[in-house]
Amino acid sequence: MATSPRELTQNPLKKIWMPCKNGFPEKHTSQRKVCMTNCPTLIVTVGLPARGKTYISKKLTRYLNWIGVSTKEFNVGQYRRECVKIYKSFEFFRPDNEEGLKIRKQCAASALNDVRTYLSEGGQVAVFDATNTTRERRDTIMKFADLNGYKVFFVELVCDDPEVIASNIVQVKLGSPDYTDCNTDEAVEDFMKRIKCYENSYETLDEIKDRDLSYIKIMEVGSRYLVNRVLDHIQSRIVYYLMNIHIAPRSIYLCRHGESELNVKGKIGGDSGLSARGKLFAKCLGKFIQEQNIKDLKVWTSQMKRTIQTAEALGVPYEQWKALNEIDAGVCEEMMYEEIQDHYPLEFALRDQDKYRYRYPKGESYEDLVQRLEPVIMELERQENVLVICHQAVMRCLLAYFLDKTAEELPYLKCPLHTVLKLTPVAYGEICCETQLESIHC
Amino acid sequence: MCSKTAGGPHLTNSPTVIVMVGLPARGKTYIAKKLTRYLNWTGVPTKVFNVGEYRREAVNYNSYDFFRPDNQDAMKIRKQCALAALRDVKSYLSEEGGQLAVFDATNTTRERRDMILNFGKENGFKVFFVESVCEDPSVVETNIMEVKVSCPDYKDCNRTDAMDDFLKRIECYRASYQPLEPDHYDKDLSFIKVIDVGRRFLVNRIQDYIQSKIVYYLMNMHVQPRTIYLCRHGESEHNLRGKLGGDSGLSPRGKKFARALSGYLEEQNQKNLKVWTSQLKRTIQTAEALDMPYEQWKALNEIDAGVCEELNYEEVKEMYPEEFALRDQDKYHYRYPTGESYQDLVQRLEPVIMELERQENVVVVCHQAVMRCLLAYFLDKSADEMPYLKCPLHTVLKLTPVAYGCKVESIYLNVEAVNTHRDRP
């Protein structure tokens, strides 16, 4: 006969029910986390230089952190730059350069050491970013992973298009610390020779020899993928993400709805329409968009009146997403902050304690919002030029994804009304450019 | 200008023909049916067109001789069947509001696939190929035993003869089989090659959102035998008072059910059983009685009744008579003011379904509307039927995959509870 069930208590911050004893919560991993495996995952990039490994590593890391999986990248090139202070030339990478090989091996080992530290101190995923082009190197990594109980997932980038490679070199390598004292032509020439040093010993992930490994091979800049032995949830999410991102140039515009009637009254939430100023903003937004002359611009709104009214003023087709609705403030909907402080002083205090995880009673938290917005981010990755007309908390979540902001920073990101943020991908990240539409244009 | 009131992203403008490719007994129909069920559940009108069915209507099956490559008469009939199926595909996608058509046949030659590509081009349809490749004889034999020996072609045969004939049938296709070649002939086509029952995938040129979703789904599903148990929380205090929603605890009978559930699951003795609950107290209290680790999913929370939360049906009828009427008109699409609809629920539950596909033995302790949505997915019920599926308290539904579908057993754990079901008016 089972013992009598434990009493439940509700965590006041996150509003999660947990078992308790004598009024105190018992330790119990009950809330669903994305990374379901108990064991950490080591993602290992594979590929010749200038194939996009670091680009993928950084982007993947940013995505995983945003969805709540603690991830960190370890770029062996950086370790090498710290060890060998001054980069002279491609000669360092020659396969017969014994001294160079020794240093490079030490750097890889040093990076793996840091990986071990990270994964044993709460990190869930480590991205080991290096060429890892020989089976020997990969075997070393797998032994390391085996020893420490990590799952290994390889991400190989294969590209034979000389134009793409040249473009990568120009975009990111020329700006690297290795080439600060070179002119463009010298740098490109040296880098090409550097790539050559790896080519002879490159052993691509093989259908037969590597059939028991878990990996994705990305070919032709993402037009083709080979996926082998995906083992678990997190690997499946990684594969899905990698298959949806692209590198075509484009811009994402983020803004809030125009000022609403409830904004004017200082009340949160609700579903009110635009104020007179809000309507003016919508008109200005329309003009701004037209002047920007954006090719094939898609416009997305939430299903709340104020974003839809804003979009209506643009005179272009738009799509409504329920997932873009503002954070649900539960019992605090349509209240002013002062009223909340009055009626729910405890809640008010808790929110300031941990604004990211705080869930309104019968409402949502920023953490919930991120989960709700994940399909929006996935689709934004697939799309090209998009204008997203949304709400303050929602915009903060989306912005945090693009600008790689932590959970702690996210709820305090500045997203004022009547301001459009233009995000353009550049090198390994995003550029954010701000335009205030209050007085300009109208 | 008007907008699309999508709950989700805007799908492709052009309809898509999904074309299955592969030797017989490679799981094409299994994949076709499962994919169709999933897409329909998410709201994308999809239909399977199985050429074998057209063939069965045209001729009576005698033996594998029909499929011999030198059988000219049969070749003619088979081609006609394919064309008839394509005509119906065209009708479904162009005139009947279909968004996706799954063309389920072997389609093993370039010639046949080129014909389909032309058909697609002529009609403005996108084409996406799903090829299943498997050379493991034990897998092939299992497939034959599971679905072929009992199919109408072999109704007058014993199992051994049926197996024998079917293996010869496969050989008829083998010589002319031209697998999709990503490096040469087929490099510009959009397709996914599923190798060895999902151990490996080759994905080429995904064109759009729906193809990306299809690939993701195919990569998450598996064919291992397993059991899914669906049930609601034990009877709650609110249930007793006829109140909607809220976050109340279990009534004494509800607690009794939780204990009974524990006993039942112990008897079931499933390997590595996972337990999932919502984040509402009543499901968690139920799971606590199981004395097993469990995971809380916010996505499994009951439908949000918005302004009607914690009211009973009489109060709703009194305070919101229009809403009450609207709900009965179209219960699937109806959204409670500041709340949710069944349609919203489906969108919210999609990641749960995706993870259920990845998992093996799972117990999902949830709520009435949520359970109806999940059940509709497993039993291929339409949006119209979904809000009226019977999911009574204190009853466990045991789902086991079988052949192309799902077997469902209903187990009432003999603890009385109120009836919360409202029939279609």
Automatic annotation (TrEMBL), chain A:
SUPFAM superfamilies: P-loop containing nucleoside triphosphate hydrolases, Phosphoglycerate mutase-like. It holds the Pfam family His_Phos_1. The keyword Chaperone does not apply. Residues 36-249 form the 6-phosphofructo-2-kinase domain. The keyword ATP-binding applies. It comes from the Eukaryota. Keywords: ATP-binding, Multifunctional enzyme, Nucleotide-binding. InterPro entries: 6Pfruct_kin, 6Phosfructo_kin, His_Pase_superF_clade-1, His_PPase_superfam, P-loop_NTPase, PG/BPGM_mutase_AS. CDD domains: HP_PGM_like. In the C-terminal section; belongs to the phosphoglycerate mutase family. This is F264 bisphosphatase. It comes from Polyodon spathula (North American paddlefish). The lineage of its organism: Eukaryota, Metazoa, Chordata, Craniata, Vertebrata.
TrEMBL record, chain B:
PROSITE patterns: PG_MUTASE. It holds the Pfam family His_Phos_1. Residues 8-225 form the 6-phosphofructo-2-kinase domain. Keywords: ATP-binding, Multifunctional enzyme, Nucleotide-binding. InterPro entries: 6Pfruct_kin, 6Phosfructo_kin, His_Pase_superF_clade-1, His_PPase_superfam, P-loop_NTPase, PG/BPGM_mutase_AS. SMART domains: PGAM. It comes from the Eukaryota. Gene3D superfamilies: P-loop containing nucleotide triphosphate hydrolases, Phosphoglycerate mutase-like. In the C-terminal section; belongs to the phosphoglycerate mutase family. This is F263 bisphosphatase. It comes from Polyodon spathula. The gene is Pfkfb3.
